[in-house]
TrEMBL record:
One example GO MF annotation: DNA binding
Naturally occurring in which organism (per UniProt): Viridibacillus arvi
Protein name per Swiss-Prot or TrEMBL: HTH marR-type domain-containing protein
Residues in coiled coil: none
PANTHER family: TRANSCRIPTIONAL REGULATOR, MARR (PTHR42756), TRANSCRIPTIONAL REPRESSOR OF EMRAB OPERON (PTHR42756:SF1)
Length: 139
């Protein structure tokens, strides 16, 4: 197997087990990894439109709409008026902020365990490599 083939093979072989195990941890908060991705985005960006969330996560708008609706039902997010009347922004509720703090505590050890034996320097290098691959794919 060529190095480039091995890279993508190993990524694929790691991805599903990671998501499956992450979902086990997130289940105690009534979340899936895709919903957690939205909440993480809202932690850093404060408020975004559905289109901005969809574009940031490279997910179709109808899929984002369904995930946001579930997060609203859980009282993790709410919508507020945007700049014009047609625009709605999604943001974390106070309860949602608390849940996000709990989730971060819940998955911290899981992430550290998954990276066992990998130095911080190696983690930074792999993060930069994956970011470059993602950017190449989005060209």
């Amino acid at each position: 197997m060529q190095p480039h083939q091995a890279f993508f093979h190993e990524y694929r072989m790691m991805y599903r087990p990671f998501i499956n195990k992450l979902n086990v941890y997130l289940a105690s908060h009534q979340l899936y990894s895709s919903q957690w991705a939205i909440l993480r985005l809202l932690i850093s960006e404060k408020s975004l439109t559905l289109v901005e969330i969809s574009n940031s996560l490279n997910v179709e708008k109808p899929t984002t709409t369904r995930m946001i609706q579930k997060l609203i039902e859980l009282d993790y997010v709410t919508t507020v008026p945007g700049k014009d009347k047609r625009e709605k922004k999604v943001q974390l509720t106070s309860f949602g902020h608390d849940v996000c703090k709990d989730v971060q505590v819940t998955i911290e050890q899981f992430q550290l365990d998954a990276l066992e034996g990998i130095s911080v320097e190696e983690q930074i290098i792999v993060s930069k490599v994956l970011e470059t691959v993602r950017n190449n794919l989005l060209k």
